[in-house]
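Quick illustration, no need to memorize.
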Amino acid sequence: MFLTYDEALNWIHGRLRLGIKPGLKRMEWMMERLNHPERKIKTIHIGGTNGKGSTVTFLRCILEEAGYKVGTFTSPFFEQFNERISVNGKPISDEDMLELTNTILPLANELEATELGGPTEFEVITAMALYYFAKSNPVDVALFEVGLGGRFDSTNVIHPLLSIITSIGLDHTQILGDTYEEIAFEKAGIIKNGTAILTAVKQTEARQVIQTKATELKAPIYQLGSQFQISEQKQLQYGWEFDFNSLFQNYQQLRISMLGQHQTENAALAVMATQILNQYYAFMIEGRHIHDGLARTYWPGRFELISEQPLVIIDGAHNQEGIDALVSELRERYQDKNIHIIFTALADKKLDKMIAKLDEVADSITFTQFDFPRASTAEALASLSKSANKFVLPDWSEAIKRELQTETENDLLVITGSLYFLSEVKPVLSKLLTK
Protein backbone atom coordinates (compact mmCIF):
# COMPACT_ATOMS: atom_id res chain seq x y z
CA MET A 1 0.00 0.00 0.00
CA PHE A 2 1.24 3.47 -0.90
CA LEU A 3 1.06 6.27 1.64
CA THR A 4 1.86 9.23 -0.60
CA TYR A 5 1.00 10.44 -4.09
CA ASP A 6 4.68 10.45 -5.09
CA GLU A 7 5.05 6.79 -4.11
CA ALA A 8 2.00 5.91 -6.18
CA LEU A 9 3.17 7.90 -9.20
CA ASN A 10 6.66 6.38 -9.07
CA TRP A 11 5.12 2.91 -9.06
CA ILE A 12 2.92 3.75 -12.06
CA HIS A 13 5.88 5.14 -14.00
CA GLY A 14 7.89 2.08 -12.99
CA ARG A 15 5.51 -0.01 -15.06
CA LEU A 16 7.13 1.52 -18.16
CA ARG A 17 9.86 -1.11 -17.80
CA LEU A 18 7.31 -3.62 -19.11
CA GLY A 19 7.06 -1.66 -22.36
CA ILE A 20 4.11 -2.18 -24.71
CA LYS A 21 2.37 -5.55 -24.42
CA PRO A 22 -0.49 -5.65 -26.97
CA GLY A 23 -3.50 -7.73 -26.06
CA LEU A 24 -6.57 -7.51 -23.88
CA LYS A 25 -6.23 -10.52 -21.59
CA ARG A 26 -4.61 -8.61 -18.72
CA MET A 27 -7.27 -5.88 -18.96
CA GLU A 28 -10.07 -8.45 -19.08
CA TRP A 29 -8.61 -10.17 -16.02
CA MET A 30 -8.53 -6.89 -14.08
CA MET A 31 -12.04 -5.92 -15.21
CA GLU A 32 -13.34 -9.25 -13.94
CA ARG A 33 -11.71 -8.71 -10.54
CA LEU A 34 -13.07 -5.15 -10.35
CA ASN A 35 -16.62 -6.37 -11.10
CA HIS A 36 -16.61 -4.96 -14.64
CA PRO A 37 -16.64 -1.17 -14.26
CA GLU A 38 -16.43 -0.88 -18.05
CA ARG A 39 -20.01 -2.20 -18.27
CA LYS A 40 -21.38 0.39 -15.87
CA ILE A 41 -20.57 3.57 -17.79
CA LYS A 42 -21.64 5.09 -21.08
CA THR A 43 -18.53 5.57 -23.19
CA ILE A 44 -17.37 6.98 -26.52
CA HIS A 45 -14.20 5.59 -28.07
CA ILE A 46 -11.84 7.84 -30.07
CA GLY A 47 -8.96 6.42 -32.12
CA GLY A 48 -6.83 7.60 -35.01
CA THR A 49 -3.32 8.81 -35.76
CA ASN A 50 -3.80 12.55 -35.24
CA GLY A 51 -6.64 14.63 -33.84
CA LYS A 52 -7.78 12.30 -31.05
CA GLY A 53 -7.16 14.73 -28.20
CA SER A 54 -8.69 17.68 -30.03
CA THR A 55 -11.79 15.68 -30.98
CA VAL A 56 -12.19 14.50 -27.39
CA THR A 57 -11.97 18.08 -26.17
CA PHE A 58 -14.42 19.52 -28.71
CA LEU A 59 -16.92 16.80 -27.78
CA ARG A 60 -16.34 17.25 -24.05
CA CYS A 61 -16.95 21.00 -24.23
CA ILE A 62 -20.21 20.54 -26.18
CA LEU A 63 -21.46 17.93 -23.71
CA GLU A 64 -20.53 20.16 -20.78
CA GLU A 65 -22.49 23.05 -22.32
CA ALA A 66 -25.49 20.71 -22.48
CA GLY A 67 -25.14 20.05 -18.74
CA TYR A 68 -23.53 16.61 -18.77
CA LYS A 69 -20.82 15.41 -16.41
CA VAL A 70 -18.06 14.17 -18.71
CA GLY A 71 -15.06 12.00 -17.92
CA THR A 72 -12.06 11.98 -20.23
CA PHE A 73 -9.15 9.58 -20.52
CA THR A 74 -6.38 11.00 -22.69
CA SER A 75 -2.67 10.59 -23.36
CA PRO A 76 -0.02 11.74 -23.14
CA PHE A 77 -0.42 14.29 -20.38
CA PHE A 78 0.79 17.80 -21.17
CA GLU A 79 1.18 19.74 -17.94
CA GLN A 80 0.51 17.21 -15.15
CA PHE A 81 0.08 13.44 -15.02
CA ASN A 82 -3.34 13.61 -13.34
CA GLU A 83 -4.92 15.28 -16.39
CA ARG A 84 -4.99 11.89 -18.12
CA ILE A 85 -8.05 11.13 -15.98
CA SER A 86 -10.28 14.21 -15.78
CA VAL A 87 -13.89 15.16 -15.11
CA ASN A 88 -15.27 18.20 -16.95
CA GLY A 89 -11.72 19.14 -17.83
CA LYS A 90 -10.47 19.08 -14.24
CA PRO A 91 -7.70 16.52 -13.50
CA ILE A 92 -8.37 14.15 -10.64
CA SER A 93 -6.84 15.06 -7.29
CA ASP A 94 -3.64 13.61 -5.89
CA GLU A 95 -5.74 11.98 -3.18
CA ASP A 96 -7.95 10.25 -5.74
CA MET A 97 -4.90 9.12 -7.71
CA LEU A 98 -3.42 7.62 -4.55
CA GLU A 99 -6.66 5.81 -3.72
CA LEU A 100 -6.99 4.43 -7.26
CA THR A 101 -3.40 3.20 -7.29
CA ASN A 102 -3.95 1.38 -4.02
CA THR A 103 -7.06 -0.23 -5.54
CA ILE A 104 -5.11 -1.53 -8.55
CA LEU A 105 -1.85 -2.43 -6.75
CA PRO A 106 -2.95 -5.82 -5.29
CA LEU A 107 -4.43 -6.81 -8.64
CA ALA A 108 -1.20 -5.91 -10.43
CA ASN A 109 0.82 -7.93 -7.93
CA GLU A 110 -1.48 -10.92 -8.32
CA LEU A 111 -1.45 -10.63 -12.10
CA GLU A 112 2.36 -10.48 -12.07
CA ALA A 113 2.42 -13.99 -10.63
CA THR A 114 0.29 -15.42 -13.44
CA GLU A 115 1.28 -16.52 -16.93
CA LEU A 116 -0.18 -13.25 -18.27
CA GLY A 117 2.47 -11.19 -16.51
CA GLY A 118 2.12 -7.81 -14.83
CA PRO A 119 0.11 -4.96 -16.38
CA THR A 120 1.89 -2.15 -18.22
CA GLU A 121 1.69 1.49 -17.19
CA PHE A 122 -1.04 2.19 -19.75
CA GLU A 123 -3.08 -0.82 -18.65
CA VAL A 124 -2.86 0.31 -15.03
CA ILE A 125 -3.99 3.84 -15.89
CA THR A 126 -6.82 2.57 -18.12
CA ALA A 127 -8.11 0.31 -15.34
CA MET A 128 -7.91 3.22 -12.89
CA ALA A 129 -9.91 5.46 -15.23
CA LEU A 130 -12.65 2.89 -15.77
CA TYR A 131 -12.96 2.27 -12.03
CA TYR A 132 -12.97 6.00 -11.28
CA PHE A 133 -15.68 6.90 -13.80
CA ALA A 134 -17.86 3.94 -12.83
CA LYS A 135 -17.49 3.83 -9.05
CA SER A 136 -15.35 6.55 -7.43
CA ASN A 137 -16.83 9.53 -9.28
CA PRO A 138 -19.64 8.38 -11.61
CA VAL A 139 -20.06 10.40 -14.82
CA ASP A 140 -22.85 10.73 -17.37
CA VAL A 141 -20.52 9.75 -20.19
CA ALA A 142 -16.80 9.01 -20.51
CA LEU A 143 -14.63 9.73 -23.57
CA PHE A 144 -11.79 7.26 -23.98
CA GLU A 145 -8.85 8.09 -26.23
CA VAL A 146 -7.04 5.09 -27.70
CA GLY A 147 -3.42 4.88 -26.65
CA LEU A 148 -1.91 2.97 -29.59
CA GLY A 149 -3.62 1.36 -32.56
CA GLY A 150 -7.00 0.15 -31.39
CA ARG A 151 -7.52 -3.56 -31.86
CA PHE A 152 -5.26 -4.59 -28.97
CA ASP A 153 -5.24 -1.29 -27.08
CA SER A 154 -6.18 -1.58 -23.41
CA THR A 155 -9.11 0.83 -23.88
CA ASN A 156 -10.74 -1.67 -26.24
CA VAL A 157 -12.45 -3.49 -23.37
CA ILE A 158 -15.21 -0.87 -23.48
CA HIS A 159 -18.46 -1.25 -25.45
CA PRO A 160 -19.16 2.36 -26.49
CA LEU A 161 -22.24 4.20 -27.67
CA LEU A 162 -20.24 5.15 -30.74
CA SER A 163 -16.66 5.04 -32.03
CA ILE A 164 -14.60 7.64 -33.87
CA ILE A 165 -11.52 7.20 -36.05
CA THR A 166 -10.11 10.65 -36.72
CA SER A 167 -7.35 9.99 -39.25
CA ILE A 168 -4.83 7.46 -40.50
CA GLY A 169 -1.11 8.25 -40.78
CA LEU A 170 2.15 6.35 -41.03
CA ASP A 171 3.03 6.48 -37.34
CA HIS A 172 4.17 3.69 -34.98
CA THR A 173 4.81 1.63 -38.10
CA GLN A 174 7.12 -0.74 -36.22
CA ILE A 175 4.07 -1.90 -34.24
CA LEU A 176 1.03 -1.17 -36.41
CA GLY A 177 2.37 -1.88 -39.92
CA ASP A 178 4.02 -0.06 -42.81
CA THR A 179 0.98 0.73 -44.98
CA TYR A 180 -2.21 2.74 -44.60
CA GLU A 181 -4.20 -0.47 -44.97
CA GLU A 182 -2.33 -2.25 -42.17
CA ILE A 183 -2.64 0.71 -39.81
CA ALA A 184 -6.32 1.18 -40.70
CA PHE A 185 -6.92 -2.48 -39.84
CA GLU A 186 -5.53 -1.91 -36.34
CA LYS A 187 -7.49 1.33 -35.87
CA ALA A 188 -10.68 -0.32 -37.14
CA GLY A 189 -10.36 -2.81 -34.30
CA ILE A 190 -12.38 -0.43 -32.11
CA ILE A 191 -15.48 -0.88 -34.29
CA LYS A 192 -18.11 -2.90 -32.42
CA ASN A 193 -21.15 -4.87 -33.54
CA GLY A 194 -23.96 -2.54 -34.55
CA THR A 195 -22.22 0.51 -33.05
CA ALA A 196 -21.93 3.65 -35.19
CA ILE A 197 -18.45 4.53 -36.45
CA LEU A 198 -17.55 8.11 -37.43
CA THR A 199 -14.41 8.89 -39.40
CA ALA A 200 -12.52 11.65 -41.18
CA VAL A 201 -10.00 9.28 -42.78
CA LYS A 202 -8.92 10.51 -46.22
CA GLN A 203 -6.86 7.75 -47.88
CA THR A 204 -9.01 5.60 -50.17
CA GLU A 205 -7.28 2.37 -49.17
CA ALA A 206 -7.68 3.10 -45.45
CA ARG A 207 -11.31 4.11 -45.86
CA GLN A 208 -12.00 0.81 -47.63
CA VAL A 209 -10.56 -1.18 -44.74
CA ILE A 210 -12.77 0.70 -42.27
CA GLN A 211 -15.82 0.32 -44.51
CA THR A 212 -15.24 -3.43 -44.83
CA LYS A 213 -14.94 -3.83 -41.07
CA ALA A 214 -18.06 -1.74 -40.47
CA THR A 215 -20.04 -3.80 -43.00
CA GLU A 216 -18.85 -7.04 -41.42
CA LEU A 217 -20.03 -5.87 -37.99
CA LYS A 218 -23.21 -4.20 -39.28
CA ALA A 219 -21.96 -0.90 -37.84
CA PRO A 220 -23.48 2.25 -39.39
CA ILE A 221 -20.65 4.38 -40.83
CA TYR A 222 -20.58 8.17 -41.08
CA GLN A 223 -17.75 9.48 -43.24
CA LEU A 224 -16.69 13.13 -43.38
CA GLY A 225 -17.32 14.22 -46.96
CA SER A 226 -20.22 11.77 -47.42
CA GLN A 227 -22.77 11.53 -44.59
CA PHE A 228 -21.59 14.86 -43.15
CA GLN A 229 -19.67 17.75 -44.69
CA ILE A 230 -17.78 20.94 -43.95
CA SER A 231 -18.31 23.98 -46.17
CA GLU A 232 -17.71 27.74 -46.26
CA GLN A 233 -14.49 27.57 -44.28
CA LYS A 234 -13.18 30.98 -43.30
CA GLN A 235 -9.97 31.87 -41.53
CA LEU A 236 -10.40 34.09 -38.47
CA GLN A 237 -7.73 36.01 -36.57
CA TYR A 238 -7.89 33.41 -33.80
CA GLY A 239 -9.33 30.25 -35.30
CA TRP A 240 -11.73 29.19 -38.05
CA GLU A 241 -15.39 29.46 -39.03
CA PHE A 242 -17.28 26.82 -41.03
CA ASP A 243 -20.71 25.46 -41.90
CA PHE A 244 -21.70 21.90 -41.02
CA ASN A 245 -24.16 19.76 -42.98
CA SER A 246 -25.35 16.24 -42.21
CA LEU A 247 -28.16 13.75 -42.66
CA PHE A 248 -29.74 15.04 -39.44
CA GLN A 249 -29.16 18.79 -39.15
CA ASN A 250 -27.18 21.71 -40.52
CA TYR A 251 -25.35 24.46 -38.65
CA GLN A 252 -24.00 27.72 -40.04
CA GLN A 253 -21.03 29.76 -38.88
CA LEU A 254 -19.65 27.39 -36.29
CA ARG A 255 -16.51 28.93 -34.82
CA ILE A 256 -13.48 27.36 -33.21
CA SER A 257 -10.71 29.28 -31.49
CA MET A 258 -8.09 26.60 -32.12
CA LEU A 259 -5.69 27.45 -34.93
CA GLY A 260 -5.11 25.01 -37.78
CA GLN A 261 -7.57 24.33 -40.58
CA HIS A 262 -7.44 20.61 -39.81
CA GLN A 263 -9.16 21.39 -36.50
CA THR A 264 -12.41 22.04 -38.40
CA GLU A 265 -12.43 18.31 -39.25
CA ASN A 266 -11.99 17.33 -35.61
CA ALA A 267 -14.75 19.75 -34.64
CA ALA A 268 -17.03 18.30 -37.32
CA LEU A 269 -16.49 14.79 -35.94
CA ALA A 270 -17.52 16.05 -32.51
CA VAL A 271 -20.64 17.72 -33.91
CA MET A 272 -21.61 14.57 -35.80
CA ALA A 273 -21.12 12.55 -32.61
CA THR A 274 -23.57 14.79 -30.76
CA GLN A 275 -26.15 14.21 -33.49
CA ILE A 276 -25.80 10.42 -33.10
CA LEU A 277 -26.20 10.83 -29.33
CA ASN A 278 -29.32 12.95 -29.84
CA GLN A 279 -30.84 10.72 -32.48
CA TYR A 280 -30.27 7.31 -30.91
CA TYR A 281 -29.42 7.72 -27.22
CA ALA A 282 -31.81 10.43 -25.99
CA PHE A 283 -29.13 13.00 -25.24
CA MET A 284 -30.42 16.58 -25.21
CA ILE A 285 -27.83 18.66 -27.06
CA GLU A 286 -29.04 21.86 -28.74
CA GLY A 287 -27.51 24.11 -31.36
CA ARG A 288 -26.42 26.68 -28.80
CA HIS A 289 -24.53 24.01 -26.89
CA ILE A 290 -22.65 23.13 -30.06
CA HIS A 291 -21.82 26.75 -30.94
CA ASP A 292 -20.73 27.64 -27.40
CA GLY A 293 -18.84 24.40 -26.80
CA LEU A 294 -16.81 24.62 -29.98
CA ALA A 295 -16.02 28.30 -29.42
CA ARG A 296 -14.49 27.74 -26.00
CA THR A 297 -12.54 24.56 -26.74
CA TYR A 298 -8.87 24.75 -25.84
CA TRP A 299 -6.28 21.97 -26.08
CA PRO A 300 -2.68 22.79 -25.14
CA GLY A 301 0.23 22.24 -27.47
CA ARG A 302 -1.78 22.09 -30.69
CA PHE A 303 -0.75 25.10 -32.80
CA GLU A 304 -0.99 27.08 -29.57
CA LEU A 305 -0.31 30.82 -29.71
CA ILE A 306 1.80 31.40 -26.60
CA SER A 307 2.69 35.05 -27.17
CA GLU A 308 1.96 37.77 -29.71
CA GLN A 309 4.87 40.04 -28.80
CA PRO A 310 7.22 38.30 -29.37
CA LEU A 311 5.24 35.99 -31.68
CA VAL A 312 5.65 32.42 -30.41
CA ILE A 313 3.73 29.25 -31.30
CA ILE A 314 4.15 25.71 -29.98
CA ASP A 315 2.78 22.71 -31.85
CA GLY A 316 3.03 18.99 -31.11
CA ALA A 317 3.67 17.97 -34.70
CA HIS A 318 5.21 14.58 -33.91
CA ASN A 319 4.63 12.70 -37.18
CA GLN A 320 4.45 13.35 -40.92
CA GLU A 321 0.76 14.24 -40.99
CA GLY A 322 1.22 16.60 -38.05
CA ILE A 323 4.15 18.33 -39.76
CA ASP A 324 2.14 18.66 -42.99
CA ALA A 325 -0.70 20.36 -41.10
CA LEU A 326 1.73 22.67 -39.30
CA VAL A 327 3.49 23.74 -42.47
CA SER A 328 0.18 24.29 -44.26
CA GLU A 329 -1.08 26.56 -41.49
CA LEU A 330 2.19 28.50 -41.33
CA ARG A 331 1.99 29.16 -45.06
CA GLU A 332 -1.67 30.13 -44.82
CA ARG A 333 -1.39 32.39 -41.80
CA TYR A 334 2.19 33.67 -41.49
CA GLN A 335 3.58 34.00 -44.99
CA ASP A 336 4.70 37.56 -44.19
CA LYS A 337 6.91 36.45 -41.28
CA ASN A 338 10.46 35.14 -41.01
CA ILE A 339 9.86 31.69 -39.54
CA HIS A 340 12.40 30.31 -37.06
CA ILE A 341 11.84 26.73 -35.94
CA ILE A 342 13.16 24.81 -32.94
CA PHE A 343 12.62 21.09 -33.41
CA THR A 344 13.26 17.78 -31.71
CA ALA A 345 11.57 14.41 -31.91
CA LEU A 346 11.66 10.77 -30.90
CA ALA A 347 14.15 8.66 -32.83
CA ASP A 348 11.57 6.05 -33.88
CA LYS A 349 9.68 8.49 -36.12
CA LYS A 350 10.08 8.85 -39.91
CA LEU A 351 12.26 11.91 -39.44
CA ASP A 352 13.72 12.47 -42.91
CA LYS A 353 10.43 13.47 -44.54
CA MET A 354 9.33 15.47 -41.50
CA ILE A 355 12.53 17.53 -41.49
CA ALA A 356 12.47 18.01 -45.27
CA LYS A 357 9.01 19.54 -44.92
CA LEU A 358 10.16 21.88 -42.15
CA ASP A 359 13.16 22.90 -44.28
CA GLU A 360 10.72 24.15 -46.91
CA VAL A 361 9.08 26.72 -44.65
CA ALA A 362 11.84 27.62 -42.15
CA ASP A 363 14.04 30.67 -42.60
CA SER A 364 16.18 29.07 -39.90
CA ILE A 365 15.89 25.79 -38.05
CA THR A 366 17.56 24.81 -34.78
CA PHE A 367 17.78 21.17 -33.78
CA THR A 368 17.85 20.31 -30.12
CA GLN A 369 17.21 17.34 -27.81
CA PHE A 370 15.56 16.46 -24.51
CA ASP A 371 15.83 13.82 -21.82
CA PHE A 372 13.52 10.99 -22.85
CA PRO A 373 14.26 7.28 -23.45
CA ARG A 374 13.47 7.31 -27.19
CA ALA A 375 14.58 10.88 -27.96
CA SER A 376 16.84 11.58 -30.93
CA THR A 377 20.01 13.64 -30.60
CA ALA A 378 20.28 17.12 -32.04
CA GLU A 379 23.19 16.04 -34.25
CA ALA A 380 21.24 13.12 -35.72
CA LEU A 381 18.31 15.37 -36.55
CA ALA A 382 20.50 18.05 -38.11
CA SER A 383 22.20 15.47 -40.33
CA LEU A 384 18.84 14.92 -42.06
CA SER A 385 18.32 18.62 -42.83
CA LYS A 386 19.35 20.30 -46.07
CA SER A 387 18.63 23.79 -44.78
CA ALA A 388 21.27 26.39 -45.52
CA ASN A 389 20.50 28.00 -42.18
CA LYS A 390 20.47 25.15 -39.67
CA PHE A 391 21.90 25.09 -36.15
CA VAL A 392 22.62 22.44 -33.53
CA LEU A 393 22.07 23.33 -29.88
CA PRO A 394 21.47 20.32 -27.58
CA ASP A 395 20.35 22.54 -24.67
CA TRP A 396 16.78 23.38 -25.66
CA SER A 397 16.35 26.13 -23.07
CA GLU A 398 19.42 27.91 -24.45
CA ALA A 399 18.04 27.52 -27.96
CA ILE A 400 14.80 29.22 -26.91
CA LYS A 401 16.61 32.01 -25.05
CA ARG A 402 18.76 32.71 -28.11
CA GLU A 403 15.77 32.97 -30.42
CA LEU A 404 13.81 35.19 -28.05
CA GLN A 405 16.74 37.57 -27.64
CA THR A 406 17.02 38.16 -31.39
CA GLU A 407 13.35 38.07 -32.40
CA THR A 408 11.90 41.16 -34.08
CA GLU A 409 8.33 42.09 -35.06
CA ASN A 410 8.95 40.45 -38.44
CA ASP A 411 9.83 37.10 -36.89
CA LEU A 412 7.84 34.08 -35.73
CA LEU A 413 9.31 31.46 -33.40
CA VAL A 414 7.80 27.98 -33.77
CA ILE A 415 8.74 25.30 -31.23
CA THR A 416 7.60 21.92 -32.44
CA GLY A 417 8.10 18.16 -32.32
CA SER A 418 7.33 15.64 -29.61
CA LEU A 419 4.48 16.41 -27.22
CA TYR A 420 6.67 15.04 -24.44
CA PHE A 421 9.19 17.75 -25.34
CA LEU A 422 6.58 20.50 -25.42
CA SER A 423 5.28 19.51 -22.00
CA GLU A 424 8.75 20.31 -20.64
CA VAL A 425 9.10 23.46 -22.71
CA LYS A 426 5.85 25.25 -21.92
CA PRO A 427 6.41 26.14 -18.23
CA VAL A 428 10.00 27.25 -18.93
CA LEU A 429 8.88 29.25 -21.95
CA SER A 430 6.16 30.96 -19.94
CA LYS A 431 8.74 32.10 -17.36
CA LEU A 432 11.11 33.39 -20.06
CA LEU A 433 8.31 35.42 -21.64
CA THR A 434 7.35 37.09 -18.37
CA LYS A 435 10.87 38.29 -17.55
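The chain is about 40% helix and 20% strand.
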